[in-house]
Structures are given as C-alpha cells and as structure tokens.
Sequence to fold (538 residues):
Amino acid sequence: MAESVIIKNVTKKYRMYKSKKEQIGDLLFPGKMGSDFNAIDGISFAVEAGDVVGLVGINGSGKSTLSNIIGGIVPPSSGEIIAKGEVNVIAINAGLNNQLTGIENIEFKCLLMGYSKEKIAEVTPQIVEFSELGDFIYQPVKKYSSGMKSKLGFAISVTADPDIIIIDEALSVGDQTFADKSLAKMNEYKNRGKTIFFVSHNLSQVRNFCNKIAWIEGGQLREYGPTNIVMKNYNNFIKQYHKLSYEEQKAFQKKLADRRKYGKAKVKK
Amino acid sequence: MKAFINIIKEQVNSFYMIQRLAKFQLKIDNQNNYLGFFWEILNPAIQMAMYWFVFGFGIRGSAKIDNVPYVYWMLAGISMWFFINKAILNGSKAIYQKYSMVAKMNFPLSVLPSYIITGKFYGHLALVGIIMVVFWISGYYPSIYYIQLIYFMAMSYLLAFSITLLTSTLTVVVRDVQMIVQSVLQAMFFLSPILWDRTGKMPEWIQEILRLNPFHYLAEGYRASLLKNEWYIVAEWQLTLYNWGLIIFLLIIGSSAHYKFRNRFSDFI
Fold:
C-alpha cells in the first residue's frame, strides 16, 4: 500500500524561561538565557493510506504536540511531515461562540472552516440532524450543557471530508449513545480508506478502532507497530508503572524530563 | 511582492466570509445590550456632543472654519475618526485574540483583521448616514460630490486594513505593539485637523509636515465631499498620490511580515 503520511525525524523545541528578564535576555543575546525543552524529539515513522494509528502515552508525553504537527497547526523545529492529501483536525470545541445560537454557530463555524455559501446550505440540515439537539438548536450556546455543546461541535466538524483526519480526544463526546454514533461515523471514515490519527487515553477505544499504535514516551517514539503487539507492551508498562512507589515514579519522570532538555542528538555525543 | 499579491487574492476570495463573519461579530458584540446595534451609533454620538460642547461651544465660541460652523466641520471629520480608531485598535488585536478560535482549521489568517474592520465599517455607514441627515436639515444638500465620499470611505477602509495587517502580526510577536499603536493613534488624532483647525496658528513648515498625516487627508476629504463641495482628490493631487503610496507601502511590508510569521503564530501565542 502507498504511504500516506511520512514523519521524518521531527523535533519540536520550545524555549523555557523562568522570568521575563530571561526572556528579554534571550531575545537580545540568543541562546544565552533560558533552556530548551524538546516536546517532540526526533520522531520518524511512516503511515500507509487507510491506516488508523492510535497515539498513546502518559500525560505530557507529546501526543497532542505530535498530532498538532501532523495537522499542520504547529510547525516542527526540524524534520518534516510529508502528507499526501488534505489534512484536517477534528476540533470539537474550537470555533463555537457562546453568544450565538446553535443554528448561527453552524454557519459561523462552517465559515471558519472555509465552506462556501452553497456548501453551508447543503450541510446545515445534516448537522442539525446529527447533533440531536432538537429545538435547542435555536437557543444560545451559552445555555447548553457541555455535552450538548460537544455534540454540536462534533456534528459540524465531521462534515469535512479530508484524506487524513486527526482526532484528539474527540470520541468521548456526550452520552454513550452519542459516543457510539460518533464512533460509527469514524468507522465510516475508516471503511472509506482514510488515514486517521487517533489520540486517546481510552485504551479500549484505541484497541477497537486502531490497527496500528505509536507509543510516545518523553517526546520520543518508544514503539510503533500493529495494535496487538504494541498494546500489550504498553499495558505491561502501565501496570509496572503503577506498581512503582511514588519516589520511583518521580525518578522516572525526572529521567524523561532531563532527556528532553538536551534532546536525542546531544545525548548521542 | 508575491506576498502582497497573495494577500490581495486571499481577501478577494474570502469576500463572502468576511461579510458574514463581520455580521456575526456585530451580533456577538451587542448581544447582551437591550439596544444592541444602536450602541454602535449612540456611543459616538455622545462623544461628538461632548467634543462640540468643549471645543466648539466652550473654547471657540461657535466661530466658523472655512465658512462652515464648527459643529458641522467637526462632525464630518470625526465620523471618519470613530471608524478608523476602533478599526485599527480592534484589528491590531484580532490575530492575537482570535487565533485560538481558528487554530485548528485551514483559515486564511489575514481575514481576521479584515472582518473586524468590516464589522466596524457597518457601524460607520450607519453613522455617516445619520450625519448626512443632520447636514440636509442644516442646509447642506446632497451633491455630485457625494461620489467623492465613496472614494474617501474606501480609502479609510484600505488605510485601516493596511495598518492592521502589519500591527496585528507584530502584536502577536511582541505584545507591546498594541500599546504603541494606542499611543500613536492618540497622537495622530490631536495632530490632525479633526477637532481643531490649525491654519494661521503655526509656522507654515510645521503645517506642511502635519499634512503628511494620513488622517489629515481623510478628514479633509470627508469635509470636501459633505460640506464644502470641492474635488479634493484633484485639488490636492499630491496628497492623493502620497496617500496611495503610503497604503501600498504599508500593504507590502504588512503582507511580507504576515507571511513571514504566519506559520509560527502558534509559537508566540
């Protein structure tokens, strides 16, 4: 099968400052003040068209940063992403305005997504139908519960039809019935042969939905492969991690943090 | 130069989006007030009354300027100011404030300042309409020179856009730019003949320099079209050329700065 997304030695470096003084100092004399933090540290892997890749890892490991880089929202510091086709991030809560009503928000968010007048007219009834909001669609969004708001956002987001989709914690929307419905929608994408990146802490969802897993640890790729193999290793890791004492967990976190300060390239030297 | 052409293309292609988003912005801004959009006019009206009372009635004792009573002279100029001041202030903040709303979508970011400006422009149209009625009642009837007003309103819009294209980008990189914009605008306001007429009160050479302030050209243009019935564009053709040069210059710098930083906005916010 053809490769759809190639991630080539991608690194994302952030400068960290302890105070405003350091920040100004670094601006005037680059590299003298502040310290580096490698949010993503030399990750490479290739994804084939039709793959559904789950990104897993503990909090702060860099899953979201990586998904943002693949989605083109954040530029990498070095390395590159070669994506064959249009990439779209399913961002449920982005682009909704609390002051506007549901139906106004549909047009508002569709405009932000770059839809034409005709396309908006075409998808609006589908969104109203999918969101299951009934008459609430004419109420301002500020009166919605968080579940209702997510439903609306999700219903709008899935009208996009890109080749590569990135979902960051999106399928835990609303109650169980709606979550099932969204999962069904995602499976529909999957069956149409779209490449999907799926970021989640819900491991059972990841296991059911993805055929490959990329396990990210401390900004680096620990393991990448078919779901059943990587998932087993990740589960074992989680179990072991839980068995560690509080001090040992802290020591492990610190080891990762130190590694991220200097980055892969320098450690090798 | 390529950036300049891209920006123009992006604006033209997004024309429908800009119009709709501007309308939504007006709705969002005024949703919570009972009087809604009316405040967009009421607010400047109260300020105009104050300026007239202090500068016209109080300090000048209702003397005439260029054969026009002070209050009308001031109204014509200041209507432009209320638009351009708000448009530049809010437009400069546009990318910084609204970036998170559109971060995850393929949104043409140069549209953010322009839809904010367009929203303010609607309020401006209404305000100019009301001022026209006031002038008709006072005996300044519509004339062929109203055609010139369309030109000057378009010029105001273009000037606001060319300035905010640059300042909205710089504000993202260095937040202090917003403060600088505010101070410079205030200075330009008092250095332009919006509230007071400086003829004969200053040495000739200072007056000549002050004419380079683009707000001078716009304020005088509004007056020439609404009150004085002159073809100001032709009579002051040097200023016309100068202002066009200024706008194009700002657009070229602004668009190249915008494209230079566009991919890295997420790093700065």
